[in-house]
Amino acid sequence: MSAFVHWQEELFVLGQALVALALGGLLGWEREASGKQAGLRTHMLVCLSAMLFVKLGQFLIMDSAHYYKPEAVRADPIHIIGAVATGISFLGAGTIFRGGDGAQPQGLTTAASLLCTSALGVAVAIDRYILAVGATLMTLFILNTLQKVMVKYDKSLK
After folding, report:
1. Can you give the residue range of the structural domain that contains 132?
2. Mean pLDDT over residues 56-70, rounded?
3. Which of 100, 118, 124, 129 has the fewest CB atoms within 10 Å, measured from its CB?
4. Count of domains in the chain?
5. What is the CB-side half-sphere exposure of residue 95 using CA atoms within 13 A?
6. How far from 15 is each of 11, 48, 75, 127, CA to CA, in Å?
7. What confidence category does residue 115 fall into, taking pLDDT thresholds of 50, 70 and 90?
8. If we measure between CA atoms, which residue out of 39, 19, 37 comes closest to residue 29?
9. How many CB atoms lie within 10 A of CB 101?
10. How far, in Å, CA of 70 to CA of 50, rounded?
């Protein structure tokens, strides 16, 4: 494959990176505005890294096909997604804490938003832009609108 084709692919991936940064940024902006630990930059980097891990895995699979016999290359893209989910789950676990005296755990929603953000990055990497944008909007609804509803509901119980 010529170097020019590689440049075109890599420029396209950089465009995808911008989409991932924008979608992750939307979720991070909401978390930041809510005063949560993982905010704008964290969500942007999670979405970008998930997208890059998937794209780099795809490139490795394609490049390996040029150097090895087809039967010698065993590739399973699902393992890449599983590794991303595991890594982000570990990161999300760091946002969860429980106060003394048996208080309710804090940070669960932020951890879930990080995991969701990584899935958005994967969706962008596999060219599922409508799905990624739609899921971003749904997540924003859950994080923002449902939070306001829950606060009003909680106040009505007291």
Report:
1. 3-157
2. 82
3. 100
4. 1
5. 22
6. 6, 11, 25, 11
7. very high
8. 39
9. 5
10. 27
